[in-house]
Design a protein that fits this description.
Length: about 120
């Protein structure tokens, strides 16, 4: 009996930590999205200059250097779709912005409009 009580308290404590961790991850990802949007045009311009074979090599090298000096998080490759409730990075439905696990729970309980869990 005593161990189950400790286990419940531990789970409650960990649930609070997990929600803080997922919130932190989502905030970090949101900052990356903002940074990527800010530097998107500049990054595309530098990449176009780097790939242009008609330009002299020293000019291409100069633009390649400028591209390398941009912040790393300004690249869209570092942006990740995350679940807004758990922060899970994989198997996220882009339309709902929630993971398959959360989606399944919400679909069975019914708060998602127009979605119901099928059974046969």
């Amino acid at each position: 009996m005593r161990q189950s009580h400790r286990g419940a308290a531990f789970c409650k404590k960990m649930r609070g930590k997990l929600s803080k961790m997922s919130e932190k991850r989502n905030i970090r990802d949101h900052k990356r999205r903002l940074l990527a949007a800010k530097y998107e045009l500049r990054r595309k311009l530098y990449k176009a200059f780097c790939k242009d074979p008609d330009l002299p090599s020293d000019m291409r090298d100069k633009h390649r250097y400028k591209l390398s000096k941009l912040p790393r998080n300004s690249s869209f490759a570092r942006v990740r779709n995350r679940c807004i409730s758990t922060g899970r990075p994989r198997s996220v439905y882009e339309f709902f912005r929630i993971s398959r696990i959360v989606f399944r729970g919400l679909a069975s309980r019914g708060p998602l409009m127009g979605i119901k869990k099928s059974s046969w």
